[in-house]
Amino acid sequence: LDGIPKVILQPNIKEKLSTATTNFSGAALKALTSAITVHYLAQKRLNNKYEIREEDALILADRTARQYQLFLGLNTLPRLLLHNLDNRRLLSHNANHGSRDSTEFHLPETYRFTGKIIISLHDKCVRTEVIQKNNRRHIIEDSLRETEENLQQLLERITSYGNDRNVPLLQLIDLNLLSSKGAYDENKIFETLKERYDECMEYKRSMIVYDLDSLVGVNQSDSESSMGTSTSTSIVNQSIYIYVTSRFREAAIEASCTDKRQKNERWAIAVVRDPFLLKKFTTDVDFTFTNEQIEQDEEEHRRSTITLVCVKCRDLYVESDNKMSSCNYHDGFVYDNLARDLKKYKPSRAIEELNREEFISYTNPKKKEEIEKGKTRFKYICCYATVQVGAGFNGCKKGKHGFGNSRKKNFEGQILDKQMIDKWETACDENPEYNQQYADLFDSRKN
Questions:
Q1: Which residues form a coiled coil (predicted)?
Q2: Which of 149, 304, 351, 390 has the maximum number of C-beta atoms within 10 A of its C-beta?
Q3: Strand runs (DSSP E) across 295-411, as ranges?
Q4: HSE on the CB side for 323, CA within 13 Å?
Q5: The overall pTM is greater than 0.90
């Protein structure tokens, strides 16, 4: 493209076109140069002020790519970049999310790279692994723009990375590649994968891109139990996953080479959307975690190991297993069904009263018969069930454990403090629905 005069192709458009022709052969580039020159001269005769626009150059490049069968996936790279250009223009009306040039997508020489990049479509970011001066690995994060929602829309960024590093070969490994090669059985799949990988090894600089979601796949299955619905996640194509992880780990950049042109650079990029697959792959290839990912991992560990006590049912649980229907409880206050005023009680106060009366009946046998008659007088307003000492706190409602800030189980002292119990019982006492139900019950007693 350097042979095209500036008067025909502006430098900024030529730079965009260099990205679009990353996978062009020498013959294809020569044909494109000729096509651009002929097109410009023809249009110039019709309009003396004519200038080649970016979309004009990409359309010409697309025709050349199709002529020479230069496809990346199911489409040509120029056509994919043309789609991206249209998408960016649709968003250009939003000042806060204006279009960004592909020139922003850089892998500068100032960093010492490991050759490994993971692009998370779920987190909408690119994570590039670098080595710091203290030889510790570090992650540089770059946010994806709004138009980058799938692998095809990421190719402009990826090819710009390749141009930065003078990478002559870019390989895209996805389900479309396997389909185009008729790779439906395992032997043919691995033959295709090995063929593409070996081709990368023939170059000093190469970049291979894996679409993990289409290649590997994730299966989710739900199972029902008395504790609610639980979901298990697993890898679908385990053998392909093992192959990709082993090849991804082999990506490396030569550090000790005086001539940069002779330096070997084996780049590997993984594009992934599924959060489970992202975390598993990042761990299995020993890719450096970001501080945010480390914090999330620590939080997940805490949720699955630290034992909490539920103020509603008084049972123990861990947050990761806290699902609907795991907690069985009463959410209403207690009233004395034998009292004329239907006196209200908090559940803990009613149990204290029953325990006190049990002690009195033991120490004073004369009152035992009278006390026995009143043992069943306390009722829950939510379901009219009888309050019984030693019956636990299982109730008429099912939901999740916890209310407010659940307390960590303390093996050295009290598991639940009175403040937390009082907070829950006050919420039950102030329930508008049950207070109306209580008022109706009181009115019915008057009649």
A1: 137-164
A2: 351
A3: 308-309, 316-317, 327-329, 334-336, 344-345, 378-380, 397-399, 407-408
A4: 10
A5: no
